[in-house]
Write a structure and sequence with these properties.
The chain is of the alpha+beta class. It is built from 17 helices and 23 strands. The strands form 4 sheets. A 6-stranded antiparallel sheet has the order 7-6-11-10-9-8. A 6-stranded antiparallel sheet has the order 13-12-17-16-15-14. Strands 19-18-23-22-21-20 form a 6-stranded antiparallel sheet.
């Protein structure tokens, strides 16, 4: 139970594993454990738990997640010190430093299998303990980084293997034919497209006979391509060839059908630059005219799309403004004119003169260099920059939120900039009104709290589980004790709740709060008698209560108001 319904703020301290590590102590010798805990606290460490057996150590390691565990190597029990350290390290990745003495040399040999991060010999000095902890935490951090690096390298190797398989798949799936030969003029690779050109023809191992075997002619179709002018021969001699055109026709192709091929060749070289072979990449350019027609159609479609985009931009409510590299406006949509008041026939550099531009505080002037559009022309991107603008057409001014992006040219550099902005004046006004309303509500809340804390009647508010979240001072004064969070079944005994006969403890089902939060009952003027250690003579109280309902009518808690009627009840008894 928190007095007056207020909960204290939590103080958060930023942790540093090297100087503020959480330590788990596993030591079955109580004096040693106490001394060790005092040393750790003196050194500035946090002892998250101190246990004496393996089972409890493993349980604490799972829930507390310490940065380091100090384990007595010689603890005995169902789980030994070695087993405890091994499980803490392997299950929870917690570094372990063993506590030992010089007489336990046989155990030291067996600890190596558990990968310890250090040993502390007893008796020890604080400096020795501190250095061991610092070393262990540092080693663990380096080991963790090493594991991450190892995993990253494994992922890279896997990616490289996948990339190699991908390249093979790509080469076999691409529309260009690829042929590679080694320095011995032997075929070492050809993809499916390259195989397709010789489909149905006997394989020819002698590359000098490929032109004759597969029907590779000059573009006029009259003469075979000679060995000397072959792009593959040029590649094997260390020369590159680009877009060498040939015509292919052989007996496997239908009468009158031929293919025009564009070939590029490159030499293959080893690490030292020595020639190791040559590679050809060739593509069918027979359908080039069809491609050109498709390109013209695409250009027409792009024009239609541009027209569509212009129509869309003219219809949206956000303002769009485009400037070239010189800062001249090249496009603005109707919304841009409407928001700005129609003053857009000028360069962006003139805006701070004709348009008085301020930051959102409406006081600080924004320089020309700070305008989002000018920054976009310089190549800078901006997002949601709030500005206040005032001009002749809109003397009262308006708030806008502006985002800007640079426009790239075909070459390196900037070709201008574009901004998209929207009028957020109403939004800002609504936010200001909301802040005003919230401030009024806060003041009302403070006033209500002051009133509740000042009245003589007790007020208690609980949630649907019976846990109280507001109690005024009068309530605790009447009851005679703090009203703390406890389960409803303990209320009668804790607070001493009786029927008015002062002898019979109240049944739980008759308690006003339970009737309210369990059944949603409302009640007025219910008499009760309270007697507890702080009110040995007892007090009569008269209780009224109502359920608290949510928006759907469900019960979310209850409130009771009660007052001390002891004098009245005793007076009535005296008169009876």
């Amino acid at each position: 139970m928190v007095p007056n319904g207020r909960r204290p703020a939590l103080k958060v301290k930023k942790a540093n594993k090297m100087t503020d590590a959480k330590i788990l102590i596993v030591e079955d010798d109580e004096p040693s454990a106490t001394h060790l805990e005092e040393c750790l606290k003196n050194l500035g460490y946090t002892v998250c738990a101190s246990v004496s057996c393996g089972h409890e150590a493993i349980e604490k390691a799972e829930h507390k997640r310490p940065d380091l565990a100090l384990v007595n190597i010689g603890i005995e029990g169902e789980i030994s010190g070695l087993e405890t350290a091994e499980q803490i390290g392997s299950k929870f990745d917690v570094p372990v430093v063993y506590l030992t003495d010089e007489a336990e040399e046989d155990l030291l040999q067996r600890t190596q299998a558990t990968n310890p991060f250090g040993y502390v010999l007893k008796p020890f000095e604080e400096r020795q303990l501190h250095l061991n902890i610092q070393t262990a935490v540092s080693m663990h951090e380096r080991e963790t980084k090493h594991k991450k690096t190892e995993m990253r390298l494994k992922r890279i190797i896997k990616k490289l293997k996948n990339f190699t398989r991908l390249m093979k798949t790509v080469l076999d799936s691409m529309s260009e034919g690829v042929v590679a030969v080694n320095e011995n003029r032997e075929l070492v690779f050809h993809n499916s497209v390259a195989r397709g050109f010789g489909e149905g023809l006997p394989a020819e191992q002698d590359i000098d006979k490929w032109a004759e075997q597969y029907g590779v002619f000059r573009p006029d179709g009259k003469a075979l391509v000679s060995k000397d002018e072959s792009p593959l021969e040029q590649a094997l001699n260390g020369k590159a060839t680009d877009d060498f055109e040939v015509m292919v026709h052989n007996e496997e192709m239908p009468e009158g059908v031929h293919a025009h091929i564009s070939i590029s060749g490159r030499p293959l070289r080893g690490k030292a630059g020595a020639l190791t072979g040559g590679v050809l990449v060739f593509r069918d350019i027979t359908k080039l005219q069809h491609t050109e027609v498709a390109l013209e159609r695409m250009i027409a479609e792009q024009k239609n799309q541009a027209l569509l985009m212009e129509t869309i931009l003219s219809s949206i409510s956000d303002g769009v403004l485009v400037a070239n590299a010189e800062g001249e406006f090249t496009f603005f949509n109707p919304s841009a004119e409407q928001i700005s008041g129609g003053i857009l026939d000028l360069k962006s550099e003139q805006w701070t003169g004709d348009h008085r531009v301020f930051y959102s505080d409406r006081k600080t002037r924004m320089t020309t260099a700070e305008l989002p559009l000018v920054r976009a022309v310089r190549g800078e991107a901006t997002d949601d920059v709030e500005m206040f603008v005032r001009n002749k057409k809109k003397p009262d001014g308006y708030h806008v939120s502006v985002s800007g992006r640079p426009l790239k040219t075909d070459v390196e550099g900037h070709g201008g900039g574009v901004i998209v902005f929207r009028d957020i004046t109403r939004q800002k006004e609504a936010a200001a009104e909301l802040d005003k309303t919230m401030e009024e509500l806060r003041k009302q809340s403070e006033l209500m709290e002051t009133m509740f804390n000042s009245i003589s009647d007790g007020i208690v508010v609980v949630d649907v589980t019976g846990q109280s979240f507001y109690v005024n001072p009068a309530a605790e004064q009447i009851i005679g004790m703090d009203i703390t969070d406890c389960p409803p079944e303990e209320w009668v005994e804790r607070y001493g709740l009786f029927y008015p006969d002062r002898e019979t403890p109240m049944r739980m089902e008759d308690l006003p709060f339970l009737r309210i939060i369990s059944h949603g009952e409302s009640m007025d003027e219910v008499d009760m008698f309270i007697r507890n250690q702080n009110r040995p003579a007892g007090v009569y109280i008269r209780v009224s209560g109502r359920p608290l309902l949510d928006n759907l009518g469900g019960i979310r808690g209850g409130v009771i108001i009660f007052r001390d009627v002891t004098e009245r009840m005793l007076s009535e008894e005296a008169l009876a």
